[in-house]
Write a structure and sequence with these properties.
Among the domains are: 132 residues, no CATH class; 85 residues, Alpha Horseshoe (Serine Threonine Protein Phosphatase 5, Tetratricopeptide repeat), CATH 1.25.40.10. The protein contains 18 helices and no strands. By secondary structure, the protein is an all-alpha fold. Helix content is 75%, strand content 0%.
Length: 321
């Protein structure tokens, strides 16, 4: 996210000597005293606390200093969800811009949209010059939230998140693309197609827009030949992209070119090491070619790691009721 990279540059050197964040980092990194002489045992207690409780849902009763220590220890260990949780607790009653900025950084890294939205508002309120960057971070957070809700199949919630982001950044291609996909998957087919067509009109050589619009037309409408031409253009631009190779195979299948479809889909399947949607497509083509044992093997493998994938489920319900 380019806005986050800019945010990190803006906030990198804003920690002042008297801030709680500086004090906590001094204890964490050196184990020795800082202004106010906090005991080194504070760092040791935080280490023990993190060893035994890294759950982001556990409500701690630690001091603000210990909460920052817990958060930074979690960051160092790559436990970003726990770090975001502990920083959120530390920042609850703080008016320290450096602490709020660091908590916001960690929330973004942890892909924690709700915490990002809350902290971005608080960071902007502390200093008026933060407003534009806070708006961009909120836009990114709403995009993450929209994608997360789509993965959970909460399509109305996903669309609503993207639209909240679009209220902040109306021309955002990322948010408009996300909303389009959620609309298609959520049953608002024509609205999704219209979104994708608008994006394609603005960036006619964008392979992602070409592929998404082409695949949607091939898969869900009678405009199969039109969609196939869009996918071919995307393929010329990105011939090694597994998603586009999968679309090439699916278009060939929908046009009745079974052997060509099988070739593309086997290639896409190999490149992704068993993506569930590609497995569904490959299995369907094998099934229709009467290679049913192989189709079942591919579906069974996909079910082991993606049993709730909607395309895989729909394919199995339709072909093996």
């Amino acid at each position: 996210m380019r806005s986050f990279a800019k945010f990190r540059r803006l906030t990198a050197w804003r920690v002042v000597p008297v801030s709680l964040l500086t004090l906590a980092l001094a204890v964490l990194l050196t184990g020795c005293s800082s202004p106010g002489e906090p005991p080194p045992a504070e760092s040791e207690r935080a280490e023990i606390r993190l060893e035994h409780d890294v759950s982001p849902v556990a409500a701690g009763t630690e001091s603000p200093l210990t909460r920052v220590l817990l958060a930074e220890l979690a960051v160092n260990r790559g436990q970003l969800a726990a770090a975001s949780h502990h920083y959120g607790l530390a920042a609850e009653d703080s008016r320290d811009p450096a602490l709020i900025a660091r908590a916001l950084q960690v929330a973004v890294l942890a892909r924690d949209p709700e915490q990002t939205l809350t902290l971005a508002d608080r960071w902007a309120a502390l200093e008026s010059g933060n407003a534009d960057m806070a708006r961009l971070l909120k836009t990114d957070a709403l995009g993450i939230k929209g994608r997360m809700l789509r993965q959970e199949r909460d399509y109305p919630g996903s669309i609503a998140a993207f639209e909240r982001g679009l209220a902040l950044e109306p021309r955002s291609l990322v948010l408009r693309y996300g909303r389009a996909l959620s609309r298609v998957m959520g049953g608002q087919l024509q609205a999704g197609i219209d979104d994708l067509a608008d994006l394609h009109a603005e960036e006619p050589d964008n392979p992602h827009f070409l592929n998404a619009l082409g695949y949607t037309l091939v898969d869900a409408t009678a405009r199969v030949d039109e969609g196939a031409e869009l996918i071919k253009k995307a393929y010329r631009l990105r011939p090694d992209d597994p998603a586009i190779i999968d679309s090439m195979g699916w278009a060939a299948y929908r046009q009745g070119r079974m052997n060509e479809a099988l070739e593309y889909l086997r290639r896409a399947f190999a490149l992704t090491e068993g993506d569930a949607e590609i497995a569904a497509h490959l299995g369907e083509v094998l099934w229709m070619l009467n290679h049913r044992d192989e189709a079942r093997d591919i579906w069974d493998e996909a079910l082991e790691h993606s049993a709730d994938h909607p395309v895989l489920q729909e394919t199995l319900e339709r072909l093996t009721p």
